[in-house]
Specification:
Oligomer: single chain
Order of helices and strands: HHEHHHHHHHHHHEHHHHHHHEHEHEEE
Strand content: 5-15%
Helix content: 55-70%
Number of strands: 7
Largest sheet: 5 strands, mixed
Shape: globular
Length: 523
Amino acid sequence: MTAAPAMEQRPRAGLALAVLTVLAAGLALHLPWLGRPFGFGEQAGGNYFGVFLRNYEKFGFLGLHGAPIGVTVVDDPTTTIAYMTHPPGLSWLYALFGTAEWQLRLTTVLGAIAAGIAMLPLLWRVHGGAVATLAGLLVVLAPNLAFYSQLNYEPVTLALGLWMLLGHRARCEAMREGRAVPRGATVLVAAMAFVGPWIDWFYVVFCAALVPMSLQRGWRGTLRPLVWPAIVSVVSLAAILAWRAHARAAVPAAAAMQIDHSVGALTQTFLSVRADLSTWLDAIVHQLRISYGWPMLAAAAVGLPLVFAASARLAGSLLVAAVLTPLLIPDHSLTHTMDYTPAAALSAWAAARAAEAVGGLCRLRPGGLRAAAVGLALVVGLAVQSARTIQRSCTDYYCAVGAVLTAAQGARDGHGDGPYFVAHGFAWFGYYVEGDYVLAPPVRDPQVLTPALAGLGDEVGARYLWLRSDEPSGPLADPPGLAGFLAPFPRERLPQLEIPVLVGDRQVCIREAWLVTLKRPVR
């Protein structure tokens, strides 16, 4: 073997080893928790995607024309909601794996790992294998990707966006150097530009991130590499809008109750809502802290100038992806940690570069050992923080609440005192509700309950699961008038539900749990 082929094989072998390292780290973090019941930070799996998939099984994927359908009050899609605010691609992707908890989680776990692996070829030529591998590990192990964005759109969109950026960089470099554009890079960009919008509208942040990578002298040269992804993205958007129109017409029952807003209406709402500057900045700091932790953020702040010095175009592209979502939807970003997922790539790269700057990550000398220690501390710290967050969220409470609601309907075989229509005031567990007469979205307003009761026939009773917490405000606090409305009715206490539960990043005590009988069926 000659020296030249041997030199070529070393980077390939190193890259393959780095891929295996990132993959192993991601699986080691997630495999212990993959099959656990959904927790309070996984509302999307409990009340959205898990329910969509069960309705695909119940009514048929083709029968629903792929429309994501919410929890049904009875075994009929006319009684439910078509969730059309987001594109359907992620629901379809989930459907390929299955409806069990571990199958639902696997989709976004693999998305997070794919995002981490994308960091390797993006950074390998810029800094070498050590920085690229550390950046990939930081993406996969950061709490934002490991938990806060799980069972949602963001890990998959991040992975698709980074791989699109990788292909776009190869195309831009070839155009600047006057070389033939690599066919593989063109295919990669086209595939990611078409698939990405089907996953979520906010794939637009990664489309915008292509612009800094395209910058060169003259506007013609800058626009030239953007034409192809722009055409493909427009075709993808047109296909999505055509599907939406078809699904609304083909599933007219679901169209009667839609969480469905046009792109223009969503954009107008997002742009018109603004918190005051201090509130907004405080929220950003809080969300970034729980997303990545202070050590990684401090390292990223040190490394940020270094990454711009190393590759201004790539750093500019990742910066656009990082900041665009909080800027476009500031009110939403006050409380939704997943909106900071696009910041993972730039933060991880800057933190890894800062670790290298401590003394040369690639060289076995005192400076290199110090740098390796910084990198190892970041990796271990993020892994521990993420594992604790996942462990704290895993709970059987949703299962217990779902079992109570299902049983509260009364036996449907003629031997019980049912059927009962069952309402509740507790959010996010539709995945565990199996009955036909359970209204899964939370109802806490007596003005909503009263007409619902009046609309029931004599043959169906009504019950209400009343969970009282120690929260003075928030989603589990009693609204005005609810206690007085429920006071006259007979009730049964449920001590098995009176336990402390984790809601978001705080613990809430359920101090009272009652099953209130609002109306008995006429037998």
